[in-house]
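Worked example 3 (structure in, sequence out).
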């Protein structure tokens, strides 16, 4: 308000001065004889310049006017923050690196049953290769643990713009032998976890008017897999979650998608008996396992600000093993 008054006063004086030049050139000075610095015209010019510059300076730099740069403009300039659950694992590491290459601040979630040293060692190794990752500890199958983890991140970083729900486990066994805990662990780590993390992040995304949520499912959700009723059910549940949430948040520039990797050469797969592994490989038309980097690239493509038209979709990366 004060700025507007100063600007208005400056303008009135300037206009008055112009009118004066045209119609009252011989208007008497304040005093006779008048020194040049007390000349009416000179004072009018100085005053109008002074008030105009005060006004412009205040408009540009006053803290009040910083509000002009909040919301949309700020979103363009502030670095985006990505949280990758299971970020220190095989596929997770590649996702973290790919997002880091895109210029995001990346936080790698880890659990390790409370063993922090392994994650710290991973962080140091990544650092040696030029990757500066933050770490966040939490058990994604437990809501309270996620709450603690995510509120800590929000306190430190202020926002989470990209959420990659990547952490997951297997407890393979045919149904006739499967225990309730083998079922429960897989459902809570691979499916309930998606609710836990996303529920805790989605409101801040809605407030910010931007978000990218990418859930890592599996080819075995699409086609089912012998010995994996728990895993296939949990990973298939992710598809339903993705499609429903995508509809709820689409109007706020938040996309929700699923990436379904086929067999990727991480420890999860390399631990499978070699004979079985070879048999699996023979069923993949491209003749090889995928690499974690191939999944990382797909994830960062979907996480990009320009990928806003893809939502509620499932993206396969399986070497042609399953085409739906
Ligand atoms: N590899 C494949 O061929 C393949 C194929 C299709 C889908 N996938 C999916 O891709 C994702 C990554 O798999 P990956 O191959 O990279 O396996 P991985 O190396 O074993 O990574 C799994 C990650 O999940 C984290 N995790 C497990 N339980 C957790 C919990 N309760 N709380 C927090 N984090 C937990 C682990 O963290 P800690 O070690 O710190 O506990 C680990 O970093 C999984 O969802 C998997 O199902 C993998």
């Amino acid at each position: 308000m004060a700025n507007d008054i100063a600007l208005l006063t400056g303008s009135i004086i300037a206009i008055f001065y112009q009118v004066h030049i045209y119609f009252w050139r011989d208007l008497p000075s304040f005093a006779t004889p008048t020194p040049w610095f007390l000349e009416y015209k000179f004072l009018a010019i100085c005053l109008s310049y002074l008030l105009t510059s005060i006004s412009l300076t205040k408009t540009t730099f006053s803290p009040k006017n910083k509000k002009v740069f909040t919301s949309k403009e700020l979103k363009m300039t502030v670095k985006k923050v990505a949280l990758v659950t299971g970020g220190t694992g095989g596929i997770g590491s590649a996702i973290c690196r790919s997002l880091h290459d895109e210029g995001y601040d990346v936080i790698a979630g880890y659990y390790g049953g409370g063993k922090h040293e392994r994650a710290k060692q991973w962080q140091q190794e990544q650092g040696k290769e030029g990757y500066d990752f933050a770490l966040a500890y939490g058990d994604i199958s437990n809501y309270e643990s996620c709450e603690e983890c995510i509120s800590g991140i929000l306190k430190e970083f202020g926002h989470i713009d990209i959420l990659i729900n990547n952490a997951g486990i297997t407890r393979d066994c045919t149904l006739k032998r499967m225990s309730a805990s083998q079922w429960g662990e897989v459902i809570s780590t691979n499916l309930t976890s998606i609710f836990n993390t996303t529920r805790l992040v989605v409101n801040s995304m809605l407030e910010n008017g931007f978000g990218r949520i990418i859930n890592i499912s599996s080819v075995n959700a699409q086609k089912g897999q012998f010995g994996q009723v728990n895993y296939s059910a949990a990973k298939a549940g992710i598809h339903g979650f993705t499609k429903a949430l995508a509809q709820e948040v689409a109007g706020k520039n938040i996309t929700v998608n699923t990436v379904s990797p086929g067999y990727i050469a991480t420890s999860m797969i390399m631990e499978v008996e070699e004979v079985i592994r070879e048999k699996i490989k023979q069923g993949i038309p491209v003749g090889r396992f995928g690499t974690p980097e191939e999944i990382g690239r797909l994830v960062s493509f979907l996480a990009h600000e320009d990928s806003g038209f893809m939502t509620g979709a499932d993206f396969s990366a399986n070497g042609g093993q399953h085409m739906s």
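Notes: Residues 59-67 have pLDDT under 50 and may be disordered. Residues 95 and 299 are 7 Å apart (CA to CA).
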